[in-house]
Amino acid sequence: MSICSLRGLNVRFCRQAYILAHVRTGVVPMPGRTKLRLSLCECNNQQTNNRRGYAINTAGVTTQIELTKLKPSILAAITPLRSSHNNLYQMVKKRTLEARTKLQRNKFPNNQACEEETKNRSSPCNDQSGSTLCSSPSSGPSAPRPKTSTMFSYKSSSSSSSSSNSTSSSSQCKPEFEKLKDPCPKPKPEVQDKTSAGLKGCIKNAELLQANDCNISKRKKVTCDKKPCEDDGADGSKKGAGGSRGSIMGDDEAKKKTRMLMALLAALGLGGLLLWLQTRRKQKDGESTDCGPTSGLPATVPATSAELPKHVPYLLIGGGTASFSAFRAIKSNDPRAKVLMITNEFRKPYMRPPLSKELWYSAEKGEVTKDYRFKQWTGAERSLFFEPEEFFVEPSKLMETVNGGIAVAHGFAVKKIDPAKHVATLTDGYEITYDECLIATGCSPKTIDVFNQAPPGVREKVMMYRSPDDFERLKRYADEKKSITIVGNGFTGSELACSLANYAKDKKVKIYQIFPESGNMSKVLPSYLSKWTTAKVETMGVCVMPETYVKEAQRDDSVLKLALSNGKSLLTDVVVVCVGCEPNTNIALTSGLEVDRNLGGFVVNAELEARRNLFVAGDASCFYDPLLGRRRVEHHDHSVVSGRLAGENMVGKKKAYTHQSMFWSDLGPEVGYEGIGLVDASLPTVAVFALPTPNPERRADNLSEAAVIEGGGSGGGTVTVNPETPDVKCDPSNADEYGRGVIFYMKDDKIVGILLWNLFNRIGLARTIINQNKKYDDLNEVAKLFEIHA
Ligand SMILES: Cc1cc2nc3c(=O)[nH]c(=O)nc-3n(C[C@H](O)[C@H](O)[C@H](O)COP(=O)(O)OP(=O)(O)OC[C@H]3O[C@@H](n4cnc5c(N)ncnc54)[C@H](O)[C@@H]3O)c2cc1C
């Protein structure tokens, strides 16, 4: 029997030889689940004295395990597979090599992915690395920012204008994607035998996996190192004498192999079941790592839930900013409070904003430290972690401490809460009772179908971005690869694109950003500013492709080939999907808690209470803002503010949400903005910017020269020039620079949101204006308060 006749069996191996063989059983029935995809690949790490390991993939989660670290039971289960690898390997190898060599000839389509769409403008599609080259425009946003002196303002609409403008952000590329050479020897002619013809289906599916795809985290051993392809062949043939000849099978041999394969499937089922049970929690938590947890067996701290207290006065679910902020509020109001934090992450509470910004600047200087130190805009240094390890109490000792404190249970997830009985149940069934409980489960990055439904070979090249592990992984790509593609135009995608472009400026890697909207940050910025920002992002070296989406993703050798909606293709080493976040509310149903249908998140009142003694804060909360109505906010400061409010209410303060939180974002070193209130591009806006002028002396008088340009909320908008300054150019599309300014977001003629564009230390004033909740006759006068030229 040919191996292909075994349903669902798929054999792969790797040119680089760090994965010798990869066998997937396809679908295996599992208790509690209808289907389980199970795969196993054997890795050989030359750099560590040929230590062998396995990558076992259960239901999409690949776990890297060193052979010596495998449990004896699992080792026994997969032993038959190891010996059979060689035969499978030799049978398929030659045909795969041949197929791959053929495929390589007609690819490298990046030359057309980002090609010129506008003759007037060149875009960052040029590089020295052989992927694509992006050059900055000689004029426009790329020019050094002039000193501002004149002020103008305008109203705008949210709706981005159409494709006519898209050309401004399109890119001009040169076809310089270097042709890769096949590093492996050509297959020998004898492979063209009758059995290999039967392998066609398998060969079609053969995919090449790359060592660098294997994530290496602190909790993880490296098990998929590179190995030259000569060794690949050598190793394979040594182990499986007659391996390649094994493709021409006699009856006995075929029977033997069939028996072995059947044994393998059984062994895989058994081994996979064990591993699946062990990795299930990680999988549910959606950690976006390549190869799963370090050891393959997810460690929890403490080792078992039995070591956790049975009852705690304060229980915090989630280990992020909101949760830690709640702890601080509890502790300052109840100094001896005993607080247990349960998180499915393996790090102590940390903040996320520097992950897409400051940390890349530390990385550029080669200064990434163990505690992820970064420089704040004030120049002060601090760590990503809110507190060092020593700050925390061991969970098993929490209830014995005299002065209280906070203990963090790592690697545990809560699956259900009984608000009436005050009981939280962990995924392993362990129950903890509480007096006060906070849900601060944050959100998880969204993905898109084109990647979500892609085969595993594609998905392992697609990542989300939310944690230090993601930072580490992306940094490795930026250091080693040629092309990174960011999908999405929001905060994380845009910040990351700029930071990566800066980090990569002396490297060979090229940064692409793709999104269907017409400009960066289009949900937040008025359309003219969004387009201007896109041009600015391009000048930073990002090849931005607006009004474009990925139609199809295929694995092409070691890279991904993206078929784009504009008919072009892009080869990329990794895709970072940054298309927003989904609140983690999966415990709502089991706990009888309400989730907002429109905004998502647990519905809570103005005191952030979902039920009595049960609060929700941070990204996961959909709260009632007495001033601006029901909201859900995904920002750092909101998680601090709401966490603090929830913490205060947990000690009985009974306070309502009144303090408006703010947010900020930085797009490279030249663009930074802060916002407060409803900063939503679908609202009508009125903006006042300082215009550049060749005459800096006029700066003092600028405010009196302000002009107003008005526009509707959802149309193109009319333009009204301030009669006092008819000479001021007010057409946003003619504006050279949006250096500094203030944007008002209007609802019912009131200011409900304010964005401060490159203006800092004025958020308190913005908060006051929003809190006044009144109609202003002259927004120009309000703008003056912000001292744009100061
Ligand atoms: C890369 C990046 C950059 C950002 N930059 C900015 C910025 O510049 N400015 C800004 O204002 N905001 C920024 N943000 C957003 C900001 O970081 C978030 O709004 C903030 O982290 C939300 O905090 P949180 O505590 O609500 O959620 P999170 O920080 O997501 O924490 C939630 C925690 O709960 C855990 N959890 C989930 N479900 C369970 C469960 N069932 N049981 C146990 N634990 C669970 C999660 O693993 C996680 O540890 C950025 C976010 C990212 C990802």
TrEMBL record:
Residues 100-195, 225-250 are annotated as: Disordered. It is found in: Mitochondrion. Residues 315-639 form the FAD/NAD(P)-binding domain. It catalyses: A + NADH + H(+) = AH2 + NAD(+). Pfam families: AIF_C, Pyr_redox_2. The keyword NAD applies. GO terms for biological process: apoptotic process; mitochondrial respiratory chain complex assembly. Residues 175-193, 225-238 have a biased composition (Basic and acidic residues). The keyword Mitochondrion applies. Residues 646-772 form the Mitochondrial apoptosis-inducing factor C-terminal domain. Its cofactor is FAD. GO terms for molecular function: FAD binding; NAD(P)H oxidase H2O2-forming activity; protein dimerization activity. Residues 129-171 have a biased composition (Low complexity). InterPro entries: AIF_C, FAD-oxidoreductase/Apoptosis, FAD/NAD-bd_sf, FAD/NAD-binding_dom, FAD/NAD-linked_Rdtase_dimer_sf. Keywords: Apoptosis, FAD, Flavoprotein, Mitochondrion, NAD, Oxidoreductase, Transit peptide. One of its GO terms (cellular component) is mitochondrion. Its main location: mitochondrion. Belongs to the FAD-dependent oxidoreductase family. This is Putative apoptosis-inducing factor 1, mitochondrial. It comes from Ceratitis capitata.
